[in-house]
Amino acid sequence: MSMTDPIADLLTRIRNINALGRPSVRVPYSRIKEQILQALQREGFIGEFEVNGEIPSKELTIQLKYGPEGETVIRKIDRVSSPGCRVYSSVADLPVVREGQGIMVVSTSHGILSDNEARQHNVGGEVICCVY
After folding, report:
1. Helix 6-20, helix 31-42: angle, nearest 10
2. What's residue 37's pLDDT?
3. How far apart are alpha carbons 28 and 78 in whole angstroms?
4. What is the number of alpha carbons within 13 Å of residue 70 lying toward its C-beta?
5. pLDDT of the residue at 1
6. pTM score, two decimals?
7. Side by side, which strands form the sheet with 59-64?
């Protein structure tokens, strides 16, 4: 079965497993998913992740983060740009999410970055998702 939006599938799997309180989730592998996970890891929203298997059954195993009393680190994770409606933003127009408590993941000419990293590199791009 062909998937029309694999990024939305990744975010939905993270959202569902996070709501259940499970420690990890496995998703099919792609380079863009790996880069999105690297941005989330750099900003502290997920723990470690690893690539398992060989092509064509390669997959990512993601360790989610929880607080000391079991509270979730990711409260909300939403897709912003979709295949049918792309959303682009210049660096000046990138919104601040929850007064700096959250991030926007942006696809830029420097790779996939968080909004904070995009501001440091002074680049805009396609806004992939919002996490807080």
Report:
1. 50
2. 98
3. 19
4. 4
5. 47
6. 0.94
7. 24-28, 59-64, 46-52
Q: Which residue numbers in the chain have pLDDT < 70?
A: 1-2
Contact of 98 with 119, CB cutoff 8 Å: no
pLDDT for res 7? 97
Q: Positive or negative CA dihedral for 43, 98, 94, 106? A: positive
Q: Tell me how far apart the alpha carbons of residues 132 and 115 are, in angstroms, rounded to a whole number.
A: 12
CA distance 49 to 41: 9
In this structure, which topology does domain 6-131 adopt according to CATH? Dna Ligase; domain 1 (3.30.1490)
Going from N- to C-terminal start, the domains of the chain cover: 6-131
Residue 36: CB partners within 8 Å, gap ≥ 6?
Answer: 7, 10, 105, 112, 128, 129
What amino acid is encoded at 104 in this protein?
M
* Cα 104 to Cα 102: distance, rounded to the nearest angstrom: 7
- The reported pLDDT for the residue numbered 2 is 54
Smallest CA-to-CA distance from 28 within 60, 55, 4 is with: 60
